[in-house]
Amino acid sequence: MEKKYRVIILAKTISALLTRLVNNLEQFTGEGYSIYKELDNVDLNTYDILLVGGGITNEEIDMLRDRISAEKLSIKLIEHYGGGSGLLPQELYAAINK
Question: Which domain of life is it from (predicted)?
Answer without folding.
Answer: Bacteria
